[in-house]
Write a structure and sequence with these properties.
With 89 residues, this protein is mostly helical. It has helices spanning 13-31, 36-49, 53-67, 71-80, and strands at residues 34-35, 85-86. It has one domain (13-86): Annexin V, domain 1 (Orthogonal Bundle). This is UPF0223 protein ACFQ4A_00760.
């Protein structure tokens, strides 16, 4: 991993942890597999930090540009999946 997560200096320590945890779940979905419930829980916490849809899209776009991993398809697959774990391979 040679990139930085998109973060805001105004966020509290816990908010940064929540955002990093969500993006970490996205990474795991592409690299190995991740528990579906973990993705959904991390996304709910992410939305508490970044409630606006346009702001969310901005952070998703910045993360994808830096990492190559698209966040929304992971969230969509977690929402629609019946399986306990998901992978984007």
């Amino acid at each position: 991993m040679n990139y930085h997560y998109p973060l805001d200096d105004a966020w509290s320590k816990q908010e940064v942890i929540n955002v990093v945890n969500f993006f970490s779940c996205v990474e795991r979905a592409y690299e190995t597999k991740v528990n579906r419930d973990d993705v959904l829980a991390a996304y709910r916490k992410f939305k508490q930090v970044v409630p606006g849809k346009s702001e969310e899209k901005t952070y998703f776009r910045e993360f994808e540009r830096a990492s190559g991993y698209a966040s929304f398809p992971v969230v969509r697959k977690a929402r629609n999946s019946e399986s306990t774990s998901i992978t984007m391979k």
